[in-house]
Write a structure and sequence with these properties.
By secondary structure, this protein is mainly α. The chain has five helices and no strands. It has one domain.
Length: 106
């Protein structure tokens, strides 16, 4: 179990569907992506760091990522960036921290 929390920062494993949705709404509401240079206007839903939201269908080019300034980032101690193009916190954590990626693929 030890490793789990570093992967599942949002604690979705312990949630029922309703709580999962509630937390997603909370994340989306606080999300700063719409003010980010990388963001493409009209893309939704944001809150790309949240598990299962998925990457953006519209964003193709990575510019700056302002996730570091987001309250969600601080609250849940997130550790990755560019969730819109690279996949959620959980997904990137699985790739790097569990798959033992050293000097990763990016
Ligand atoms: S950390 Fe980034 S993707 Fe997640 S809610 Fe904040 S701005 Fe949006
Ligand atoms: S995930 Fe990061 S790079 Fe992508 S739109 Fe949000 S703040 Fe910008």
């Amino acid at each position: 179990m030890g490793k789990y929390d570093t992967i599942d920062r949002f604690g979705i494993d312990k949630m029922n569907k309703e709580d999962y949705q509630k937390r997603q709404d909370y994340v989306t509401k606080k999300c700063k992506c719409q003010g980010c240079p990388t963001y493409v206007k009209g893309d939704a839903p944001t809150g790309y760091c949240y598990p299962l939201v998925g990457t953006s269908k519209m964003i193709q080019w990575e510019k700056d990522c302002i996730c570091g300034t987001c309250p969600v980032y601080k609250e849940y101690e997130l550790s990755h960036t560019h969730y819109c193009t690279r996949c959620s916190q959980m997904c990137q954590a699985l790739k790097t921290e569990v798959a033992g990626g050293q000097g990763g693929s990016g």
